[in-house]
Amino acid sequence: MSDGCPDPGGLAGCFFPGMAEHARNLCLNKMSIQKILLPLVAALMLPLSVGMAADEAPSVKGELDALVAEISGKIAAGVRTEEALADDIKRFDELYAKYASEKSEDVARILMMKALLYVEVFRDTDAAMPIFEKIVEEQPESEAAAKVRPFVEKMRARKALAVGKAFPGFQVKDLDGNDLSLADYAGKVVLIDFWATWCGPCVAELPHVLETYEKYHDKGFEIIGISLDTDRDKLAGFIEQRGMTWRQYFDGKGWENELADKYGISSIPATFLIDGEGTIIGTDLRGEALTEAVAAALSK
Questions:
Q1: Is residue 49's pLDDT more than 70?
Q2: Long-range contacts of range 17-20, CB-CB < 8 Å, 24 or more positions apart?
Q3: Mean pLDDT of 207-236
Q4: Are 199 and 269 spatial neighbours (Cβ–Cβ below 8 Å)?
Q5: pLDDT at residue 151, as a whole number
Q6: Beta strands at 171-173 and 179-181: parallel, antiparallel or unpaired
Q7: DSSP 3-state of 18
Q8: What are the residue ranges spanned by the domains of the chain?
Q9: Exposed, middle or buried by CB within 10 Å (0-12, 13-18, 19+), for 49?
Q10: How many CB atoms lie within 10 A of CB 74?
């Protein structure tokens, strides 16, 4: 599967039915997310079609399969909100409490299925994060923990880039081979822009970015582009054609871009507006919201 933008299916529907829509204003790192989670599909889902025999003693596997099958039926029937499935969510908690002392793949699977309910059905990755972290902390030897751990680390890195926090510095080479450091922009209002030429939403937003840059560059506004492209010549040609005169970081690694990996970037465009002291004052600002935020920052 190749990286693309947008992804109409993505992970949605792999674990619970009826959730094929995807956000269409972002380019998602499908390869990274699927590499982490999709290898668990077979282990997680089998054998949902096989129920316990009447004389079979209850087991974590049998009880979980029955619970997931029941929830899947509700979702297929259109019941898809956290509020409507609140009782079922509690049953995940009760089931885990019952078997928590056991350290096994099946017990880790209870937490994984609950987390995926939040990711795929409720579209609430923030709510899923504590569950993923619980897998890593309480079921550390499980296959689920091994697969989820990189995702948890990436999400923690991304979450740390919040408004009011200092943006961690970097020292790299730009597209032309010159030293590029965030420290070089001290005292400036800077937009850190993770993007790519193949990302439709990034290209769609570019006119707004160019307009803001042209309007406020002379007043102290700068942009540092971090390109997730893999073709240097294509990137250089695109930059020249579009009149993007600000500096770019490019290493040709696509989604494995070193700065994107360092900062936990899993979707683009991802932008961070930084004030003259290096503090994040806005994230993922687009259109007029970006222009207004830059103007406000420069007026201080």
A1: no
A2: 17/72, 17/75, 17/76, 18/75, 18/76, 18/78, 18/80, 19/75, 19/80, 19/120, 19/121
A3: 97
A4: yes
A5: 79
A6: antiparallel
A7: coil
A8: 27-159, 171-298
A9: exposed
A10: 14
Which CATH entry fits the domain spanning 171-298: 3.50.50.60, 3.40.190.10, 3.40.30.10, 3.40.47.10?
3.40.30.10
Q: Which is it for the CA torsion 246, 251, 254, 260, positive or negative?
A: negative
Phi-psi region of 278 (alpha: psi -120 to 50; beta: other; left: phi over 0): left
How many residues are given for the chain? 300
Asked if residue 3 lies in contact with residue 30, where contact means CB atoms within 8 angstroms, the answer is yes
* Spacing of C-alpha 254 from chain mean position: 15
Residue that is written with structure tokens 């687009």 in the block: 286
Residue 297, token pair as written in the block: 């920052």
Q: Of all helices (H) and strands (E), which one includes residue 272?
A: strand 270-274
Residue range 114-165, pLDDT digits in tens: 998 988 888 887 888 899 999 999 999 998 898 888 878 877 887 889 999 9
- Pairing between β-strand 171-173 and β-strand 267-268 as defined by DSSP bridges: unpaired
Single-letter amino acid, residue 139: Q
Terminal CA-to-CA distance of the chain, rounded, Å? 47
Distances (CA, A) of 130 to 102, 114, 150: 20, 11, 14
The answer on pLDDT for 191 being more than 90 is yes
